[in-house]
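Methods: example folding runs. The two proteins below were folded one after another, and each record is reproduced exactly as written to the output file, sequence line first and structure-token line second.
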Amino acid sequence: MWPSRADGFWLFLAAFVFAGLNVLLYALGDVTTGPLGPAAGLVLQVLCDFSLVLLFRFPRPVAWSVVAVAGAMLASDLFAPGLLVPVHPLALTTVPAITPVVLSQLARVLDRRTVLWVGGILTLIAARPWIPSWSTTPFAVLSTTLPVLLGLYGEARKQLLRSLRDRAERAEREQHLLAEQARAEERRRLAGEMHDVVTHRLSLMVLHAGALGVTSAEEAVRTAAEDIRREGALALDELRDLVGVLRNGAEPGPRTLSPAEPGDPARLVEDSRSVGVPTELAVDGDPAQVSPTVARTAYRLVQEALTNVRKHAPGASVTVSLRYHRGGLDVSVDNTAAARPPDPALAGSGSGAGLAGLRQRVELVGGRFTAGPAPGGGFRVGAILPPYVPTAEGTRCDPGARGR
């Protein structure tokens, strides 16, 4: 019915005020003497007053009904005095008293041409230029033309302000897009440098380690060379995935992370148990539902969390939870309170940026990271990871992922 509650309130208030004004004029002045009764003019005026409430819902019918009533009042004044307008009215204009309010609000709901037509007709009826008079013409112009001009001016000013606001918002969005474009360009540049420099060096390391493992006669050297080659190959895979994330390429499909791979969190749990940390592993769901990049992110999170437990919470027990589902992977590492004070040398050996690096890594793949104290004096590190990350390199490195 109205653009806002405030508009509805003011329309009702104006309708009641003008209805009261018309009742007052009826009580103080002459009444109509025609066959329609002494209150015919009052009823017509009050109907126009309360039609104001419907202005925003039915703008054209309300506008033209006011014009029709004004025309009927003019016809009564000219050809049938006393029918709808008293022979000696207190108001000198032959338009409804609510006319200025209606005209001032029409610019908000009707086009400019219609408003000018309605305002012009009402001005003509009120001013009666065929019998100009200083007692009627100025007041008629003030009650019809002036409200139209004020309404059109107010609406034009509102549209101008809205246009300026839209331009400011559009400029802000364009600036944001330019900043995003610059960041994306910087990410692509970094991805290119990582791919060209680091991948080249790692590839050379893997080749040298493989050659050393083939040519060396000592078993220990061959074993060490194979470990270096395997770790280097995994680093290459992970680097390709991270470069793909930076380039924001196409998405890879999920790939099963076999238990034999070094990226399996189960190996981290076994390593933690082997150094005397009571560690439990709870796995729910199928690891094949997540991509290699997400699996490696979960692996690094578990690795960092278990390392922090060994450094800062000696004697604590740990629970590692991995829940695979269609929406991604939920990871949490919870440890109890430390049973004894940590070794100062071991606790101070880190850089202090482990959790911050984990947060950046998780957010880079589109996940959410949490870390903080747990009830009972322990600590909890967790993340909610998506099922896959849009990386073109991951798809090329995992041909079997395209079929999933």
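Second run, written to the same file directly after the first:
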Amino acid sequence: MSDPSRRGVLRLSAGTALLGSLALAGCGRGDTATAKASAESVDDKPATGAVDVWAAQGDADVLAKVLKPFESANPDVTLKFTLIPNSEYYTKLQAAIAAGKGPDVAQFFPESQAQFLDPSILRPVPHGLVDSGAFFKSLWDAGVVKGVAYTVPWYAYTYALVYRADLAKKAGVAAPATWAEMVPFFKALQGAGAVHALGADNGWDIFNGQDVAMYAWQAGGNLLSSDGGWTLDTPAVVDALKYNASFFTSGSADTATPTFLDAQPYFVSGKTATMITGPWVIGQLDTAAKKTGWTTAHVATAPLPAGASGSTSFSAGGSWGVLADSRNTDASWKLVRHVSKPGTQVAQYSAYGSLPAVVSAWNDPAIRKQPLLDAFLTQLKNTKAFPQVGTWQQVATRLGKEMETVAKGTQTAEKAAANIQAYAKSLGTGAE
């Protein structure tokens, strides 16, 4: 499975504000520029010339290997890969764009790419390049603004429930299907020997804010109103904060540990017995246990428990876009088209564990024969995209901080929701 080290990319940097101002400045180009660019077409002739590709280290580490068939089919094209550490990637990309020295093709993250989705920064995806319906809907939607698509999905992940099946069997309980069943399930796992039932993510940052959003959707809420304003002090958000806090106030989770890097060792040792996390952990647990086959013998997965409106999760992963000032748009789009093919995405999975964003690729035996991935496939079909607005990362970070106060009992969920709404309203959405 792919490494979640991309978490470092999503932390706020000074560059976020810079890119936001660039996007706003570009809006003056208006609908005419957008319509003209989106009408671009790409033929089936071999690609030629040089294509400069920038990506974050991690899933992209194997690109040179995975794209060998593209180079073989297009002998007159030259691909140049620049891989940048996750923690520096967006900052360096933003600076390069501002200086007019960006690459032809760049990797983005659907959960945090909103500030780039503008015709002054990215070229709209050409009509007919790919079939938008071939991808998980929320991943495609994450790259669309005002009906114009700017990115093409590459790999996918979402959150599901990963738990110690052996302890659940010992306790005689099945995976929880609803919010109401969650804490009793946790208690049963503790009764079967787990010190804490949930290995919670305790960064109290943007990632916890994403959890609040996920729970708010499950409670029937929306983060934005129909007219584009923030709606973060609603009963659904309050319920989301209370639901998360119940994990800690019940004693099922610890507000201090484990840290992110401790999550797998804690899970293997029995210090914790459940994680709400992404599919990458499936490929890491045997290593943490120092025993091949440990995961198969001890672990199960399940979709997230449903709130009042279902078990919606969020979509995340990787995507590709072509820069507005690309020097070779034809070859760039042909590369993106190749990466979006099911066979290429299966090759990426085989090389690195990156799960496909193309739904049909999940039918490949290499993936279909991995039963622990079934819950993630089910969950990916029930996901939403985070708000495609420039200030979402800042708002999500504040959500995470307010979430901590409720979990630790120093503030009510109602007050935390009011604080979040006031903060978000003061920021706006970046589109004003």
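Comment on the second run: The domain at 160-313+389-427 is CATH 3.40.190.10 (D-Maltodextrin-Binding Protein; domain 2).
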